[in-house]
Predict the 3D structure of the following.
Amino acid sequence: MTKPIPIAVLVGGSGSNLQAIIDAIESGKLNAEIKVVLSHNPEAYALKRCEKHKLQAVIHNHKSYSNRDEFEKAVLQTIIESGVELICLAGFMRLLSPKFVARFSNKIVNIHPALLPSFPGLHAQKQAFEYGVKVSGCTVHFVNEYLDAGPIICQAIVPVKENDTEETLAAKILEQEHKIYSEAIQLIAEGRVKISGRKVLIK
Ligand code: GRF
C-alpha cells in the first residue's frame, strides 16, 4: 500500500463528516492520515471525537483574534507545521481569504450540502427545501476564492419526497455526505484527480 496522504480536517461543529473520514480510514477504505484537526469553535463536538480517536486537535477561536488576518495567520501556521498535502473543510464556518486559498491552490476541498452551483452559502438544505426542488444532494469541490464555487469533484443526489421536512432532507443529505467525502479524498490520494479549467477529470 502506498503512503497515506497526510490531511488536515478543519471543523467547527458536530464533526460527523470528520467521523466518517476517521471511519473510512479505520476500515481501510481511505488511505489517508489525519495529521491535525483544526477547529475555530472551542465547543465543537468534533473535538470530542478527536479525544476519542487520539487525534491532534488545535483550536483557533476566531473570536480571540483581532481580525481575520491574524486568525488566518494562526491557521496557516498550524497547517504548515502539520505538513499536510490536503486540507479538508468539514463544517469549518470561516471564509478563507483569496491569499490563503492561492497559497494552497487545488489543495483545499469542501463538502457542501446541496447540488452546487444551486444553493451556495449557509443553510443550503433549507434553501433547497423551501425552493421546492425535487432533487437535492451534496457536492465535494475544490475551494477557490469564491464561496462554494470551485471545480466539482463529485456529487450525490437525494430525491425530495412530498413527506420530507427540512430536517429529514438534511439527514438524508448528510448520509450521502459521509459517503462521498471520503470517496473524493481517496480519489485525490490515488492521484486520479486532474483539474482542467472548471472541470475535474477522474482518471
Ligand atoms: C455539513 O452539512 C457540511 O456539508 C457543511 O457543514 C456541515 C458539517 O457537519 N459544510 P458536520 O460537522 O460534519 O457534522
